[in-house]
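ok trying this again, last paste got cut off
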Amino acid sequence: MGSPTWKANRDERTWETEGGHYGHGQTPENQHTDPGPMPKWLTATSTTPKPGPPAFPGRSAFGPDKSNASIFLLGQQLVRRGYGEHYRVGPSRDWGEANRLNVAAFQRAQTWTGSDADGYPGPEIWCRLFS
């Protein structure tokens, strides 16, 4: 249907002399009917669901001697969330101690302690980090 268009077909004198409250169809000199059902307008609060986190690649993707895109993605998200302080330059595809320390800092921020804050991401930390 597109956006409605409105045509000013009444002169100012009519509005000044014809008092009262008029609905769209009863307005003086209005020769057309209501436009019918209006399209659903976009709002600031979209009903489109927010995309979920990327799929967790598995625990085996992280740790010493590992190099892959998931490590880089993890590092980028740690930096975005404010947990990149141990990187000297920034995240890379290679797993290093900076990755472990940054993940451990994020785990502790989730109130995880002891062996739960070991610095290796599991599916729960991955989901929280990307939410």
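PB: full thing came through this time. The first helix runs from residue 12 to 17.
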